[in-house]
Design brief:
globular, 8 helices, about 170 residues, four-stranded mixed beta sheet, alpha+beta, 4 strands
Length: about 170
């Protein structure tokens, strides 16, 4: 997702590879929020899309998140959608439009974007890059060239990321 939490000139970039139908990614939001709170504008958290085949609506959710970026509410949309992963799995794409409406976004434009596929290339590019760097599950983080697989275990990930950010900020 091209919408990051701060200006792109941030000294440290954390890529968060998420599947927006993944319950583990919802849990990982606590770590992302804590890191953003701790580091503020010294850490640029960038969401990257890695929709997993086992999640039927993850690809559409990634496209919807890109539309939310276009409408100025990328991260709020992602956070609201991840809070409804089970509902997305049960009810599908109508949930994408409901979340958009709840956030005051143009749901009709969301629907059009999903139909015309205007964000397909962005999602496909993220997915291809993720495969190239051997992302296999979500959440996965990349910071300073190091890949941290939260899909295996999120235990200690926030601390490892914080240690890397501290090292990079000093260095």
């Amino acid at each position: 997702m091209s919408d990051s939490t701060i200006a792109p000139t941030s000294p440290v970039v954390l890529e968060a590879w998420f599947d927006l139908q993944c319950p583990d990614c919802f849990v990982a939001l606590d770590d992302v929020r804590a890191l953003r709170e701790t580091y503020g504008d010294r850490l640029d958290v960038q969401l990257r899309h890695f929709p997993l085949a086992k999640h039927k609506h993850a690809y559409a959710a990634a496209q919807a998140a890109e539309e939310a970026v276009e409408q100025g509410k990328g991260w709020p949309y992602v956070e609201a959608l991840l809070a409804r992963t089970a509902e997305l799995g049960d009810r599908g794409e109508p949930v994408l439009l409901e979340v958009a409406t709840e956030l005051g976004l143009d749901a009709e434009e969301f629907d059009t974007a999903l139909i015309d596929g205007r964000h397909l290339l962005t999602v496909d590019a993220d997915e291809a890059e993720g495969k190239a760097i051997k992302v296999t599950g979500t959440p996965t983080y990349v910071i300073d060239g190091e890949r941290l697989d939260g899909g295996q275990s999120q235990e200690g990930l926030r601390q490892r990321i914080a240690e890397t950010v501290d090292r990079l900020l000093k260095g």
